[in-house]
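My main concern about presentation is that the manuscript never shows what a single data entry looks like. An entry of this sort, consisting of the sequence and the corresponding backbone structure tokens, reads as follows:
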Amino acid sequence: MMLPQPQKMSRTGGTFVVPEEGLIALHVPRPADLLFTARHAQTALHQQAGVRWELAGGGLSAPLVITLDAAMGRAEGYRLHINADGILVVGHDAAGVFYGVQTLRQLVQVHGRELPCLEIEDWPDFSSRGVMLDVSRDKVPTLGTLYDLVDMLAGWKINQLQLYVEHTFAYRDHHVVWEHASPLTAEQILDLDAYCRARFIDLVPNQNSFGHLHRWFQHARYLPLAETDGPTRAPWGRLEPPFSLAPAVPATLDLLRDWYAELLPNFTCKMFNVGCDETFDLGHGRSRALVEQKGKGRVYLDFLLEIHRLVQVHERTMQFWGDIIIEYPDLVPELPPNVIALEWGYEADHDFPGHTRLFAESGVPFYVCPGTSSWTTIAGRTDNCRGNIRSAVANGLQHGAVGVLNTDWGDWGHWQPLPVSYLGFAYGAALSWCYAQNVNLDLPAALDTYAFGDEEGVMGRLAYDLGNVYQEPGILIHNGSFLFWAYHHTVAAMRDQWQLDPESQAVLADDVRLRDRLHATLDTIDRVLEPLGRANMQRAGAALMQREFQLVADLLRHGARRALLQLNDDTVTRSTLHDELDALVAEFRAVWLARNRPGGLDDSLARLERARALYAANDA
């Protein structure tokens, strides 16, 4: 098994035994162009097969030949031949050679020195295969963490990475906004861009440019640019602080012009994601008269076109989230030709069929954008994640999407450790490369081999099953899990405020049923976590990953026990939970700082600390 599985593969019988002495020959006019890729093959052979082969250019005879043939196959495609005499990697282009070598690396990882003889012909279903990582709510990874992630994603043939930014880029004239956020600097972006580029990944600049700017509007300097001066009720029910830029205020474009001039020169990629999603407050304040005159959809589109003009100054293709414009289908054909709409949705039953059909009929290029289902869950939602990605990619293929952007958000404090999202990253990478061969991929086994490096086969199944614990309480929640929200709402408040499916509502309303389900949930967590100590991960950071999944399980348990306390269950007391929370807070902080910068940690921890209020009363 490989990750992703190739489009076509046939075993031809026999094995190629990797000899002690050998050569990696680069049969191309400019061998230096493929040197980085060839070193990937050289390192894999050394680390996994125990041999040290030199590199050489020219037409030398060698047991491993790497070459190019632009007339062969499709862009980014490759052929890999292994027979009793040696190995041949032929790429349509330099990226194809790189992906052929990544497949070879996986084969050497699994088989060592005895490689099966085979023929692979492979190419991607989608030309753009991306991952978007939220670095604004509240977690900004260290550069080392990002480099490790890039290496993993490149090995899975991902070719686009976006870091979602609201306020976490260090704009020189806007220090007050990011001073406590440990932001990414221009120099760090330059370094990361070069690191990605060497691995055939486009680092796409990303700066939300319409909504989700509440971190800016906290400061008096920027509040006059906001649509409202006070809170507005969002579609998801909460009152949100000033949130979106006001199209009626001309100075908003000056701010965007300033951002783009400083941000974009640090990226070589010619695409730019400007966000512009969830602008629910548009028309509630400074743009009210404009909306009443022209209509909300028209005002939104006109401002989007103004943003587009600013982006064109920098000769970029503008990406934007499609959730607002899709509400005004008559306006979709007015979008300019050099944009990419990002059709997003994170439930397994999201209307990808209808939305992708609309964008296809309009002629607007679009990506499908599912998610890892990890945020506001602690451990993920495995079944929902698989269904969501599967639907997005299948409908994207059917209706001509030009790319897949798999998203990983950090809403409400970004409590999930990064390895929780590996499952979604892996499945998204596999399906966006070749849907047909990977839709039924054995994810636990793939994760064990290519994410965790677990020779005991523990971690893949553990991550998979822990990600399905969200179903155990019997209460299914849109875009989250009961055990996460148990930290933020009392059971009484959930019963009073939540609108759920009938079965979930019935469980939530019944003390006895809910108690039974929560005890069963605790048993499931214990069962899933029991083999953690037997994991044998042969990779850097193994001890940290074990610690992260232990924390995930402890957070899930505590969420269940919080709910049991409110149901007067005699297995828990306030004092015990208070002490448990102390330990969780300390471990949460330590685990966070192992991968991430300190900025945002206090904001995230404050959400966990607020859970302490439930334990203030005496047990009596």
